[in-house]
Amino acid sequence: MADVRFENITFHYGDKCILKNFSLTVEESQIMCLVGPSGCGKTTLVRCLLGFIKPETGAIYVGDRCVFSAKDRIDVPPERRHIGVVFQDYAVWPHLTVLENILYPMKKMRMNRDEMARRAKHALEQVRMVGYENHLPSQLSGGQQQRVAIARALVSSDEVIVMDEPITNLDAKLREEMLQEIRVIQHDIGTTILYITHDQEAALQLCDRMAIMDYEGNLCQLGADEDIILRPANRFVFEFIGVSNFLSLVQQNGRAYIDVGEKYPLDDCPMDIFASGQKMEMGVRSNDIAFDNTSPIRAKVRSSVFLGSEYNYFIQLGNRDLRVQQNALDVIQHGEVKEGQEVGLRFLQPRYYPAKEQKGGNA
Ligand SMILES: Nc1ncnc2c1ncn2[C@@H]1O[C@H](COP(=O)(O)OP(=O)(O)OP(=O)(O)O)[C@@H](O)[C@H]1O
């Protein structure tokens, strides 16, 4: 097993800076999810690691091996980096059988026959595809094809596997199953996995640690999923992970109010947030809004949707619509609120951030 280290990686496409002095360590035998919005540079980072493109600065290490260093002019070719890869579009060869697909990278590495057979058998067992050796990809479901791609990555490297949106093309149930399988496979063999996604739900289910990139390709937080959810480093992380609502705040006569057309006092709000003179907002996650009839913050239930394990409510508070999510078990315990009903609201774990600047124009 090996850790993966990116040190001060800079990369441009033309004039456009995609990664600037980007550093990240993926610890050995862990699943690290690199999460960020579309276009932020995740795949670019993976391509640097695999050796498909060359950063302008920095170094990349896989365990003790330096696979790239701009300063020392090291640039190990992709096939000698020994990194397993699973891409979104499966990338299994359509004209090769399952077994031939799995043997392919080992043949390229010129491995001996017995070792190839042993590894292929083991990888097929790990992804539960024994019995499908002679099937062509066209005879397999999307999930089975993806398992073949994982088996092929496993035989390429038992040290490091990179997965770039590997389950995006699968239906919801299969996605869930594949996440479980990736977790079980990783647990059994202890491979280091760098998992790239813009799907925060998948990341939360899968990872040991999460790295969050913002739109500009900066690493804005690195931590266990609890850290990211409970202690978001900034507004971007708070908004990107989980479902959140934002409400404008004002202060009057030393007291803070939510301003939603009508003003509701917010007694727990620390007044020092107004010290900078900036407009402030309160962010609260949808599952951190509780119904409490004793609360003076009065709102109206516009709609209620049952989603199996949770209820989704759309609530009108003054001139704002809020989304509230409640666990189905809590609803069973405390009772469902009905459309049209008036409710009192209580905000748990609110966060305070400067308001975003409104963009002008009609665009
Ligand atoms: N070959 C290329 N030439 C020029 N620009 C590119 C090229 N490949 C990617 N880009 C640009 O680089 C930026 C980063 O792309 P990248 O594919 O790394 O993003 P990403 O975070 O992986 O996005 P997604 O989640 O949508 O896959 C984007 O603005 C993209 O348009």
From TrEMBL:
Positions of the ABC transporter domain: 4-241
InterPro entries, sorted: AAA+_ATPase, ABC_SmlMolc_Importer, ABC_transporter-like_ATP-bd, ABC_transporter-like_CS, Mo/tungstate-bd_C_term_dom, P-loop_NTPase, Transp-assoc_OB_typ2
EC number: 7.6.2.9
Pfam families: ABC_tran, TOBE_2
Protein name: ABC-type quaternary amine transporter
GO CC, alphabetical: ATP-binding cassette (ABC) transporter complex
Keyword tags: ATP-binding, Nucleotide-binding, Transport
Primary enzyme class: translocase
Any one GO molecular-function label of the UniProt entry: ABC-type quaternary ammonium compound transporting activity
Superkingdom: Bacteria
Keyword Transport set for record: yes
PROSITE patterns xref list: ABC_TRANSPORTER_1, ABC_TRANSPORTER_2
